[in-house]
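Encode chain A's predicted structure.
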Amino acid sequence: MERWEALINGVLINLGGPDVPATVATLKEEIKSFCSHFLEHLQGEEDHLNAIGRKFVPLAVQKELVTRCFMATPAASWEVIFPFIVEHCPRFAQRTRFVQCFTWVLPERAQQIGAILHRNVDAVAWERLSVVLPNIIPRGVANHTKLY
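Encoded structure for chain A:
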């Protein structure tokens, strides 16, 4: 990737240079083969490693791992992570499942997660999420209701 970065920077510096088309063609081919290998790798993880976690790691331990991860990660990082994942999940059901899983494990943090999303995703994404997951709506935001 560092070599690719150097090649891309060279292309950007010498946009009119004679070697630019050949460099771009090389980059296209190398990145294409890398992406196909990477997708194959991710699919292998999905097919083989997820089942191990579900079968051999008890739910209580899974919850504990998520809780520790949440507590160990700085709040500023969650301001980037949550919106990034929600915006880049290809399907709405995946977005809601991602947020819902965190609120199942950390129900006391549901409104904190909602506040992060409310501040950092677009209005349409927020509205759709808040309709499906009303428990994430933080105080002071439209449609907030007390849950007790």
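The helical segments are 2-13, 20-56, 59-72, 75-88, 92-105, 110-120, 123-132.
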